[in-house]
């Protein structure tokens, strides 16, 4: 069983930046494919970005050019650097992992963190 803990969320003004972290522990799943997801009020959870154990990445269209996903396998930690934040980026951000890559990219991973709140407001 893998445990995931997100951190780094908070309140930021439009155009600002935040860096989210997701620390993984507990099993070999800590180096499995991972992803960042978000859920805004009244909306379904959606994929933000995904990364493989080999550092291959993919992004949702609404964050391309603004967000960067990365991982440090030695530290069992995944990151999401968020720049040029917009009001519509406000959501609870979750990290998740699954040994099957297709589950990560289709939004159905089986291991989730507790989430961290990101609020973009002027």
The general outline is globular
Q: Kindly report the average pLDDT value.
A: 93
Proportion in β-strands: over 45%
Span between termini: 40 Å
Q: Mind explaining what this structure looks like?
A:
The protein is mostly beta strands and 122 residues long. The chain is built from one helix and eleven strands; from the N terminus they run E-E-E-E-E-E-E-E-E-H-E-E. It has one helix at residues 101-105, and strands spanning 3-7, 10-12, 18-25, 34-39, 46-51, 57-59, 67-72, 77-82, 91-97, 111-112, 116-120. The mean pLDDT is 93.
Write the layout of secondary structure elements.
Elements: E1 3-7, E2 10-12, E3 18-25, E4 34-39, E5 46-51, E6 57-59, E7 67-72, E8 77-82, E9 91-97, H1 101-105, E10 111-112, E11 116-120
Parallel strand pairs: 2-11
Antiparallel strand pairs: 1-3, 3-8, 4-5, 4-9, 5-6, 7-8, 9-10, 9-11
Short overview:
The chain has 122 residues and is mainly beta. It has one helix at 101-105; strands at 3-7, 10-12, 18-25, 34-39, 46-51, 57-59, 67-72, 77-82, 91-97, 111-112, 116-120. Helices cover 4% and strands 47% of the residues.
């Amino acid at each position: 069983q893998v445990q995931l803990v997100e951190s780094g969320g908070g309140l930021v003004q439009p155009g600002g930046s935040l860096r989210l972290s997701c620390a993984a522990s507990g099993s070999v799943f800590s180096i499995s494919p991972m992803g960042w997801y978000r859920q805004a009020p009244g909306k379904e959870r959606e994929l933000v970005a995904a990364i493989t154990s080999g550092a291959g990445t993919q992004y949702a269209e609404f964050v391309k050019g603004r967000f960067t996903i990365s991982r440090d396998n030695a530290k069992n930690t995944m990151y999401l650097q968020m720049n040029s934040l917009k009001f519509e980026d406000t959501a609870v951000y979750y990290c998740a992992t699954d040994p099957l890559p297709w589950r990560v990219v289709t939004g159905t991973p089986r291991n989730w963190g507790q989430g961290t709140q990101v609020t973009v407001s002027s």
